[in-house]
């Protein structure tokens, strides 16, 4: 259908860490009763999920939606096993066949081929120590825009769940948080938005987060502001680290950045 370059040709789609793990680090598991019936995810989130349901920032996901490319198809009498791949990883998806439906109507079998892009709905299970997507609906993708839209949904969904999680945490700790100064690093670390950043990294991160432009701030403008405080190599290394950890993402090109928690 389309080559790989049509999907991963630039911007934040090249950064697999943008999506994070399904069970977000530093978040206690099963601490919330929030559930979401269906949510879009990427394969990396499925591969790094725990033994139970996929959880994103305390929200349990019952059914996942994955957009990926079919790399291999194995036909058997009772099931079809697909090897699927997106920009974050590769896994197996199993579609069990309904024998009675097949005898009555051949349309029950998904009409997809190797290298096709598909959207799959199902549950993530663990089989012999490996994550497998138990699919119950597989739809071929005929519009390349649907692929880009899915990744945008994944990012937006993760940020919304993170914001909901922080609201719950702030409401539960209003008294203790009130005693901290407004610029306290402790308070910022507790919120999870800048957890693990040292003062040098914070300097770059705050500069990016302060930008109100839709396209974010350019790398050149940032370095003009910071060149008296750090070398260009240090600045570049910090920028790459912030991208890799999901604190920032590139926007219109690889030279402009926004913070993931920017409003």
How would you characterize the overall build of this protein?
The chain is of the alpha+beta class and 263 residues long. The protein is built from eight helices and ten strands. The protein has helices spanning 43-47, 99-104, 145-172, 174-178, 185-191, 199-209, 219-226, 232-244; strands at residues 35-40, 54-56, 59-75, 79-86, 89-96, 117-127, 130-140, 217-218, 248-250, 256-259. A hairpin with a 2-residue loop joins strand 2 and strand 3 (59-75). The longest helix is centred in the middle third of the chain and has 28 residues, at 145-172.
SSE topology string = EHEEEEHEEHHHHEHHEE
Structural class: alpha+beta
Beta content comes to 25-35%
What topology, given as strand order, has the largest sheet? 3-4-5-7-6
Q: State the separation between the terminal residues, measured CA to CA.
A: 36 Å
Give a brief outline of the structure:
With 263 residues, the protein is an alpha+beta fold. Helix content is 32%, strand content 28%.
Write the layout of secondary structure elements.
Blueprint (H helix, E strand, L loop, with lengths): L34 E6 L2 H5 L6 E3 L2 E17 L3 E8 L2 E8 L2 H6 L12 E11 L2 E11 L4 H28 L1 H5 L6 H7 L7 H11 L7 E2 H8 L5 H13 L3 E3 L5 E4 L4
Descriptive labels:
alpha+beta, elongated, 263 residues
């Amino acid at each position: 259908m389309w080559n790989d370059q049509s999907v991963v040709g630039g911007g934040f789609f090249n950064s697999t860490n943008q999506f994070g793990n399904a069970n977000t680090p530093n978040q206690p598991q099963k601490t919330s009763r929030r559930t979401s019936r269906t949510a879009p995810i990427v394969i990396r989130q499925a591969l790094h999920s725990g033994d139970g349901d996929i959880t994103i920032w305390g929200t349990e996901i019952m059914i996942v939606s994955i957009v990926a490319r079919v790399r291999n198809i194995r036909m058997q009498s009772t099931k079809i096993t697909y090897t699927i791949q997106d920009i974050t990883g590769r896994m197996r998806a199993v579609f069990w066949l309904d024998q009675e439906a097949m005898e009555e109507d051949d349309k029950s079998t998904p009409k997809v081929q190797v290298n096709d892009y598909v959207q799959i709905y199902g549950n993530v299970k663990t089989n012999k120590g490996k994550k497998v997507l138990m699919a119950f609906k597989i739809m071929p993708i005929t519009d390349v825009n649907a692929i880009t839209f899915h990744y945008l949904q994944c990012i937006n969904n993760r940020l919304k769940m993170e914001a909901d999680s922080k609201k719950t945490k702030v409401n539960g700790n209003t008294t203790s948080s009130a005693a901290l100064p407004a610029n306290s690093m402790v308070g910022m670390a507790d919120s999870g938005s800048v957890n693990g950043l040292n003062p040098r990294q914070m300097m770059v991160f705050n500069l990016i987060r302060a930008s109100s432009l839709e396209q974010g701030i350019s790398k050149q403008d940032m370095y003009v502001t910071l060149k008296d405080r750090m070398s260009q190599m240090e600045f570049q290394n910090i920028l790459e680290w912030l991208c890799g950890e999901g604190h920032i993402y590139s926007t219109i090109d690889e030279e402009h950045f926004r913070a993931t928690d920017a409003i």
